[in-house]
Amino acid sequence: MGVKATVTNGRLVMDEPTTLPEGTVLELVIDDEGDELDDRERAALDAAISESLRQAANGDTVPADDVLAKLRARRGR
Question: Which domain holds residue 67?
Answer without folding.
Answer: 5-30+37-74
